[in-house]
Write a structure and sequence with these properties.
single chain, FAD/NAD(P)-binding domain
Length: 538
């Protein structure tokens, strides 16, 4: 039986990134995927006639440009088209728009509050300062603070240097920022409720926390760290849907000689004499390899696919305690035409923005209260986009695809499994909220797909359907992610590595965890490094 240099478990974008960099370095690599399609959460699927659904992740920004260049993803068809601004509809018939044009954006804020319009530049400057601190470490391995190895000492020194550069006063602000709630953070700059509500959404998307929960200011920052065409904080649509990202990385992987197998779900990671030696598939086949790399989340890797006796008991307990809670749902909709929104003037650029339907901080927090009670939000926070307004490849001419990302939606309803009528009631809640602002919306619906966290877990394999593979709170970041002492992509079993979003720097279609893991693997194998690394030089 053939023995590969490496087997990568999971053909999501991180698994494919690790596989591509290993193959680029000359390793014989096979990447296995349980579904009959690749991409994990970054997929494009035909689920209704000629419509293409980005049925999990839906916008692109966090993908690191260094990885794009290193794998030459443009050669494999990846194009990202920016889209403009965001929009929050108000119950009184008005709306608040966030525009890319600074002068237009200032006038819009001043329409509600001149004080808030003036405060925005201070807010943006302070937030981007925090962004620059963390962005410099996205494509680097977290240093081990308990280690005296030169590489770890250098890493700690680089972190220290970044903090020294911002000055003593800013250090205090940074420590506060990383631990405070998004509501508290926004209160320090703004007075207008709808402006704060519009901005607070980035602090709770994909997170089992509310706007008043400590740590959500950092989640807001996590969504600001990306860029499109060099514009930090911008977002865009991958042409052809989010599967274009995974498809381009897979194309790079295969161009380097990598082997990709679908319908090859992994049942267990094979450990012999304390060393990972391959994987056992659900169909009974085995794939042998000198190293195993798991792109699965940390719970699925160690609690589902390994014998408990293969890892230390303390490590196993820490994995059990890792916070990875389902809180987000999706509704993907095929439309017979473009919905109208009477509140928006005709020709307004916000028609191609992402849209929201909660206009107050109280409503934002009440949506979270429903999740805490074990049910979906009856007045949900929806992040709604219509990619076909800028990418006509995703639907037939004159038709459209709508993606609705919903906070909050629990993995289980009051501790029990979802029923079909309850899934339908959840969908109607979302549809009714949008219809409150678009009178022709319902009659344009041709088909929709409902995805609860339980559906995402079942179909993709992410524990509880948590899109970040674990909460992005201070106790689960940097050298604590996923488990203290194991943040450098190596597992407590020789020859076993982790490359999924449960590792630093976390979730989103970023590919940084996959790239960082590949760098560490190549270092252990003493192979030439093919992976970009930076400390602020991007």
């Amino acid at each position: 039986m053939k023995t590969y240099d490496a087997v990568v478990v999971g053909a999501g974008h991180n698994g494919l990134t690790t596989a591509a960099f290993l193959a680029k370095a000359g390793l014989d690599v096979v990447c296995v995927e349980k579904n009959d399609y690749i991409g994990g959460a970054a997929v494009s699927r035909k689920l209704h006639e000629d419509w293409i659904y980005s049925n999990c992740s839906y916008v692109c920004s966090l993908l690191r440009p260094e990885i794009f260049r290193a794998l030459e993803l443009h050669r494999h068809g990846l194009q990202v088209t920016p889209f403009g601004g965001s929009l929050t509809f108000m119950e009184n018939g008005d709306y608040y728009g966030s525009y890319h044009d600074p002068e237009v954006a200032y006038r819009e804020r001043a329409r509600f509050s001149r004080r808030d319009a003036d405060a925005y530049e201070r807010y943006r400057s302070d937030t981007m300062r925090q962004c620059r601190i963390i962005r410099d470490f996205l494509l680097s391995t977290p240093p081990d603070p308990t280690s005296f190895r030169p590489k770890d000492l250098l890493g700690l020194m680089q972190i220290g240097r970044k903090f020294l550069e911002v000055g003593e006063d800013r250090i205090y602000e940074t420590i506060r920022f990383w631990t405070m709630s998004v509501a508290e953070y926004l209160d320090e700059y703004f007075e207008t409720d709808v402006i704060k509500a519009a901005m607070s959404g980035s602090g709770i998307i994909g997170t089992a926390l509310g706007i008043h929960s400590p740590g959500t200011a950092y989640v807001l920052l996590h969504h600001y760290m990306g860029d499109v065409d060099g514009n930090v904080g911008s977002w865009g649509f991958a042409r052809g849907g989010m599967g274009a990202v995974s498809g381009a990385i897979a194309g790079a992987f295969q161009s380097y000689g990598g082997e990709l197998r679908t319908e090859a779900g992994v049942d267990k990671i094979i450990v012999r004499n304390g060393n990972a030696r391959g994987v056992g598939l659900e169909n009974g086949d085995e794939i042998l390899a000198n190293i195993v790399v798991s792109a699965m989340d940390v719970k699925r890797t160690f609690l589902n696919c390994m014998d408990r006796s293969d890892v230390d008991e303390d490590f196993y307990t820490r994995v059990e305690n890792f916070k990875i809670r389902g809180s987000s749902g999706k509704l993907n909709i095929a439309l017979d035409g473009l919905p109208t929104f009477p509140a928006l003037p005709e020709g307004n650029s916000l028609h191609i923005s992402d849209m929201h339907f909660i206009d107050s901080m109280e409503r934002m927090e009440r949506a979270y209260d429903d999740w805490k009670a074990g049910t979906w939000s009856k007045d949900p926070y929806i992040d709604m986009v219509i990619p076909t307004t800028v990418d006509p490849t995703m639907a037939p001419p004159g038709k459209h695809f709508m993606s609705c990302f919903i906070q909050y939606c629990p993995h289980k309803l009051e501790g029990r499994d979802w029923t079909d009528p309850e899934r339908e009631a959840f969908a109607r809640t979302v549809i009714d909220q949008i219809a409150n602002y678009s009178p022709d919306f319902k009659k344009l619906i041709l088909h929709y797909e409902v995805r609860t966290p339980a559906d995402i877990e079942e179909q993709i394999g992410i524990t509880e359907g948590n899109i970040f593979h674990g909460e992005l709170t201070m106790d689960q970041l940097l050298f604590n992610r996923p488990v203290p002492g194991y943040a450098q992509y190596r597992a407590p079993v020789a020859g076993l590595y982790m490359c999924g979003s449960s590792t630093h720097p976390g979730g989103g279609v970023m590919a940084a965890p996959g790239a960082n893991a590949a760098r560490e693997i190549l270092a252990d194998l003493k192979r030439p490094n093919t992976v970009p690394e930076n400390f602020g030089d991007d």
